């Protein structure tokens, strides 16, 4: 488990913590929650053959407009198809 934790911490530091300035524990906690949500639901993982850990329902849709979901003010980005919009068209 130590190797997995070390890899997660390296990703957390390089993708999030080193690029932000925190003004207290609340801003740090918010950034950590946003990064963990991004890490588990929106980020591809090489160890899983570039699959998501917990994919949303709209993952794999072939119809719909491509949307960009941003976290932490645009620091983390995830592109997905808007399945709700596709069903209305």
Task: Characterise the protein shown here.
The longest helix has 17 residues, at 25-41. This protein has 89 residues and is α+β, with helices and mostly antiparallel strands. The chain has one domain (2-88). A hairpin with a 4-residue loop joins β1 (65-71) and β2. The chain has a two-stranded antiparallel sheet with strand order 1-2. Residues 85-89 have low confidence and may be disordered. It has helices spanning 2-15, 25-41, 83-88, and strands spanning 65-71, 76-82. The termini are far apart.
* Overall average residue pLDDT: 81
Measured as a percent range, the helix fraction is 40-55%
Number of strands: 2
Tell me the strand order in the biggest sheet. 1-2
The main sheet comes to: 2 strands, antiparallel
**Overall 3D form:** flat
- Assembly form of the protein: single chain
Find the structural class using helix and strand composition.
Answer: alpha+beta
| CA radius of gyration | 15 Å
What fraction of residues sit in β-strands?
15-25%
Protein name: Integrase catalytic domain-containing protein
Pfam families: rve_3 (PF13683)
Organism: Polystyrenella longa
InterPro entries: Integrase_cat-core
């Amino acid at each position: 488990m130590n190797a997995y934790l070390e890899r997660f911490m390296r990703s957390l530091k390089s993708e999030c913590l080193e690029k932000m300035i925190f003004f207290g524990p609340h801003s740090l906690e918010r950034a950590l929650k946003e990064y963990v949500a991004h890490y588990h639901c929106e980020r591809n993982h090489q160890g899983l053959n570039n699959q998501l850990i917990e994919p949303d329902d709209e993952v794999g849709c072939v119809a719909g407009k491509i949307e960009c979901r941003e976290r932490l003010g645009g620091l983390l980005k995830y592109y997905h198809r808007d399945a709700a919009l596709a069903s209305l068209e």
